Amino acid sequence: MVKRDTGFQAAAHLIMIVMSVMVLFPLALLIMSSLSPESDVIRYGYSLIPREIDVTAYRYIFGDGSVFHSYLVTIAVTLVGTVVSVVITTMISYTLTVPGLPGKKLLSFYVLFTMLFSGGLVPSYMMWCNIFHIKNTIWALLVPSLLCSAFHIMITRSYFQNNIPKEILESARIDGMTEFGIFFQIVLPLSVPIIATIGFMKALMYWNDWTNSLYYITEKQLVGIQALLNNMLTNAKYLTQSMDASMVATDAAAIPSLSLRMAVAVVGMLPMIMLYPFFQKYYMKGLTVGAVKG
């Protein structure tokens, strides 16, 4: 029995090591390629071990200093949007679990309907700009398509139903506690895994969002980091394609279009990668426990 367990553990460790290498190898290749000279990338392709270290792509990104301002914008939007979104999501989800609530079926249908159907981009743009007037405001980065997700509401509701003991809630109601008191004093303290899970999902959505900046923002001081990096890539590609043949031979390294793609990916994703280990245990527990009835 011991030998069988030892063999199983050795096989499991080997499989996990192989999977870890498969995950880390593209990341390492991405970082090393972003530090490779443009000429080497053109001549030899992307390499895990660069022949020399060149930070031209990062100089291009951080050259004018606008990246730091865009980082601040994105950090502020991510923090505020995540907190507000988690509060809204958990409150709606708890509302859908309250027994005997008038209109609960209608609210459930509304949430499910919005998850399956959408009015489309043009009607959404007209609504946000012509009715709510959020264009070129911070609300344009917070509200459209990000503030509340029906999918996250369904996940959170499932967690509340399967993992919050109904006996505790019924005892609190018998003792005269209000639904707000039950929610804030009982439900939320027992729901740390799903709150951390939804919070990390929301933070990732806000951090990676660039479409709201593209659609609703024209002022530079409100452009987020992802939109700015996307604009840099577009500009570099346009400048490279606009060069005539005589300039390409001498000035190709001045615009590191190939290594710039890798550097943009590194700059855009590195903060979230650094935060993920702190949320990982809650992230997995929130998703798995919420899907299985305890």
Q: Quick gist of this model?
A:
This protein has 15 helices and no strands. It is mostly helical.
Feature tags:
294 residues, mainly alpha, 0% strand, disordered C terminus
Care to describe what's here?
- With 294 residues, the protein is an all-alpha fold.
- It contains 15 helices and no strands.
- It has helices at 2-34, 38-44, 56-62, 66-95, 104-116, 121-131, 139-142, 150-163, 166-174, 179-187, 192-208, 211-216, 225-242, 245-251, 257-289.
- The longest helix is centred in the N-terminal third of the chain and has 33 residues, at 2-34.
- The chain is flat and about 75 Å long.
- The chain starts with a helix and ends in a 5-residue tail after the last helix.
- The relative contact order is 0.13.
Structural class designation: mainly alpha
Q: Which ranges are low-confidence, i.e. pLDDT below 50, for 5 or more consecutive residues?
A: 248-253, 290-294
Order of helices and strands: HHHHHHHHHHHHHHH
Q: Tell me the radius of gyration.
A: 24 Å
Q: How confident overall, as mean pLDDT? A: 83
> Rough shape?
flat
The helix tally amounts to: 15
What fraction of residues sit in β-strands?
A: under 5%
Main beta sheet strand tally, sense and closure: none
Number of strands: 0
Helix content: over 70%
Distance between the termini: 31 Å
